[in-house]
Write a structure and sequence with these properties.
The chain contains six helices and five strands. The protein has 223 residues and is an alpha/beta fold. It has a domain of 129 residues. The protein has a five-stranded mixed beta sheet. Strand 1, helix 4 and strand 2 form a beta-alpha-beta unit. The protein starts with 27 loop residues before the first helix and ends in a 12-residue tail after the last helix.
Length: 223
Amino acid sequence: MSMLTPPDMGGKYRITGDKYPRMRPHRRRGRLVVVVVACGAVLGVAGWGTLQLIDVFTGGGGTATAAGVGCSTKATKATKASPAASASAAVAGVAGAAPKPAQITVNVFNATTRSGLAKTTADELKKRGFKIGEVGNATKQYDKKVTGTGILLGPAASLNTSLPVLATQLTTAERRTDAARAGTTIDLIIGNQFKALTSPTASVKALSALAAPQPTASTKKGC
């Protein structure tokens, strides 16, 4: 009989063996772990939300994306402009330094086989306020060799002064400078594709832009 068996009990109620029964503990530890994990998750979410609010009210720590402000930080590639666009760009680039048409003397030379172009062009330029110098046929260097609408030729100092002003009257003309050339007179050499000067309305508009250029379309407010 085992020592654990009461004296008045025996038979099938007798306890035998050397192993003692153990009571199973309550499952409180597992519940505690679940509660701790849940509390940690709640605190983490709350902390993340707080950081987001701080970021919103402080401007995001001084960083901004291009999408947020509507501006691109990448430099755009340069594109080849047409003669008319190049003339407009040059006109806008010499604001405040361009002389008036009355201060510019223009020589008009005809490099085509069509007669009378030099005189009629010179008369039209005179009506538009320019001073007229020599009028006649082009020299051998240019005679019948100008394939475009014309060439505007002047001294190096005229590149950003008087040449852009004259270019408003024939926006498709090619512009050239001669460093060895003296004086301030400019040559207008009429080419084979010449039909007429730029319309008076367009010329006046270009001259106005030369005097008071507007901001380019690519410039955005706030960039």
